[in-house]
Design goal:
The chain is an alpha+beta fold and 639 residues long. 38% of the residues lie in helices and 15% in strands. Helix 10 crosses helix 18 and helix 23 packs antiparallel against helix 24.
């Protein structure tokens, strides 16, 4: 991947932008693309494009960005990977286009030249891109349908800024920090932020499958969608038996892994020992029996005993079985504390720091492209709360309730409720928090919407007629909100800060469309297990002794009680006393930090929540407190 940015003057009366003004953008994007820098300004001085390149394919100077169409009319900059660039290149060559590099950015420029804005529907990959027609002065900025590659923007009067990171825009604007209250509310309840908001009041993210088209002559711009998940429901396929579906999924995953191994960089795997990452590693070895593979596994250093806690032993078994070189990366609480408030936006969990640490080790091992298993749980029904939801709303599968329960207290009490949003707000969202907003928040409670409203509005937009389709509704909720805004924010930014690109074999359109429309009884099986269908697929690659029980490894410090109804195996938490050991520092920034001037949280709530951490017997890793701590430190750094 790379870092891209730009400034657009939307009016002829705007003061022309000078290239020196983008030096901040270049500096702040450098870690994302240390291999080459690119800068271009239009002759009308109404557009400046900036790119920092991580050269994952064709490192020659001629392949550096910006790239041009054959006739030099279209210029493009791009962050990401186009996995069908070879097929598109072949088609364009047959139409008379010439190519001077192997860079997929050049394919984008020529594809836009030939197909116009409909070229976006032809792309398969992870991307944030810009194309500009010098003659017509038409400009498009776009983001892939899963939102893997980030793209943020801000319109201030008659000037439009965009960038791969929100903080680079904020620094460029040189304005006082103002927080988006709805973003804070969403974040506390659900970890992710809805409706294109960010923590910065005047900075938004481009939503998945969205693009903005500008015409700089007519001073016009319009936001549109080139891909929507709602269309998955109209996908037609012939009915098949279980074995046929298993083969289809296996073949699509194999092809997805193969495509994501292309390029000039060494490729590795973030290996947790879970089914998803183990399957990815197995498929790489299946495709390339002699390939050198590095794997990277997080392990957590106990704050009391200094011993490592986690699944590193199981990960080593998987890595050795597939003849890969495993690297154990210890996660130390002292280093974790230094990361609080350090990312472009506050962290919802310790996963940002874990991915940052894994990426740093990968970079040291000269492994600059990493494959992960993100998205598999959302596609293949990998969460206990999703199966509990199905048992509640689809009578044909009520038997699932024997094993799968709602984690929230509210979910257990709401027997009279009939709406999906009463039980489910998306993976990671806490209904109990949403139900108690008046206790948690101060003035912003009356000025922001409960997350339940966000989900209700999204469900209406999806236009499903019956609750029997609840598993499809949950899928679309997660892929509309959780995957693009939280999951990929916690992965993409921390890795790219180290100059390491993450790729996601499960996040491919054809696989999602297929699994979305497989009959539910085939996806669930009869074994009362999460991810039944994927487990059946994995049998082609993984021996049974390497399929380990699911562990909430992303939250090794979480209170055990949170998972007691989940059926998940739970090990000793590594960071149980994290807040207790750092009580003075934590209390000081939360109770007296600069962020208190904006009056977000109820003081009684803060005092009560912090008090639990003052006693070694009652302390625990409080996910809510972690988020508040991050907001406080982040605000302190930027204000």
């Amino acid at each position: 991947m790379c870092g891209i940015a730009g400034i657009i003057n939307l009016s002829k009366n705007s003061i022309p932008t000078h290239p020196n003004q983008v030096s901040i953008l270049q500096k702040m994007l450098f870690s994302r693309g240390p291999d080459a820098s690119g800068l271009w300004q239009s002759t009308e001085r109404n557009l400046i494009l900036v790119v920092q390149r991580l050269a994952t394919k064709d490192a020659r100077k001629i392949a550096n960005q910006p790239c041009w169409s054959t006739d030099k009319k279209i210029i493009s900059i791009f962050n990401g990977e186009i996995y069908n660039h070879k097929e598109l290149r072949t088609k364009l060559i047959s139409l008379g286009y010439k190519f001077y590099s192997k860079n997929d950015t050049e394919v984008i420029a020529n594809a836009y030249h030939y197909w116009g804005e409909t070229f976006l529907k032809k792309l398969r990959g992870q991307f944030a891109l810009v194309v500009y027609d010098k003659i017509k002065q038409d400009l498009i900025i776009a983001r892939d349908e899963d939102g893997i590659s980030p793209l943020y923007y801000s319109k201030i009067r008659d000037r439009f800024y965009f960038s791969s990171t929100p903080e680079s825009i904020f620094v460029q604007l040189n304005q006082k920090l103002t927080l988006n209250e709805q973003a804070i509310s969403d974040f506390i309840v659900a970890d992710c932020i809805s409706n294109g908001n960010t923590f910065f009041e005047r900075i938004n993210y481009l939503e998945p499958g969205q693009y903005i088209k500008f015409n700089l002559k007519r001073e016009y711009h319009k936001k549109s969608k080139f891909s929507t998940y709602e269309k998955y429901n109209s996908f037609k396929q012939k009915s098949k038996n279980k074995d046929e579906y298993i083969n289809l999924v296996f073949n699509l995953l194999s092809e997805g892994v193969k495509k994501r191994l292309e390029g000039d960089k060494e490729v590795g795997v973030f290996l947790s020992s879970g089914l998803d990452s183990s399957l990815v590693l197995g498929l790489i070895r299946h495709l390339y029996p002699k390939k050198q593979i590095n794997t990277f596994t997080a392990s957590f250093r106990d704050t009391l005993t200094n011993k490592l806690i986690g699944e590193q032993n199981n990960a080593l078994k998987v890595s050795n079985y597939f003849n890969a070189s495993n690297n154990i990366v210890p996660i130390d609480s002292r280093d974790l504390l230094k990361s609080i408030g350090s990312f472009s936006q506050p962290s919802a969990s310790i996963m940002e720091f874990i991915n940052h640490s894994l990426s740093r080790r990968a970079k040291e091992k000269k492994t600059e492209v990493i494959l992960t298993g993100e998205g598999a749980d959302e596609i293949f029904l990998g969460y206990d709360h999703n199966l509990a939801l199905i048992s509640k709303f689809n009578k044909n599968f009520s038997y699932l309730s024997k094993k799968f329960k709602f984690r929230s207290k509210s979910g257990l009490k709401l027997k009279s409720k009939k709406n999906i949003e009463d039980f489910y707000l998306g993976g990671g969202a806490d209904i109990d928090v949403d139900e108690n907003r008046d206790i948690i928040f101060n003035k912003i409670n009356s000025r922001t919407d409960p997350y339940k409203i966000v989900i209700r509005n999204l469900i209406k937009k999806l236009k499903f007629k019956k609750n029997d389709d609840v598993e499809k509704i949950a899928f679309l909720i997660d892929f509309s909100l959780k995957i693009p805004e939280y999951f990929l924010r916690r992965s993409e930014e921390p890795s790219m800060e180290q100059g390491v690109e993450l790729r996601f074999p499960f996040l491919q359109r054809e696989l999602k469309e297929l699994v979305f429309n497989i009959p539910l009884e085939i996806k669930l099986g009869k074994d009362l297990e999460t991810k039944y269908l994927l487990r059946e697929v994995s049998k082609k690659i993984l021996p049974e002794h390497l399929i380990f029980p699911k562990l909430p490894i992303g939250v090794p410090a979480m209170k055990k009680e949170y998972f007691k109804r989940s059926g998940q195996k739970y090990k000793k938490p590594a960071f149980k006393d994290l807040f207790y050991q750092n009580f003075k520092e934590m209390k000081e920034i939360i109770m007296d930090g600069k962020y208190r001037e904006i009056d977000i949280f109820n003081e009684k709530f803060l005092i009560k929540t912090i008090k639990h951490q003052s006693n070694k017997k009652t302390c625990f890793y409080d996910k809510m407190l972690w988020k508040i701590w991050n907001i406080a430190k982040w605000y302190e750094r930027l204000s």
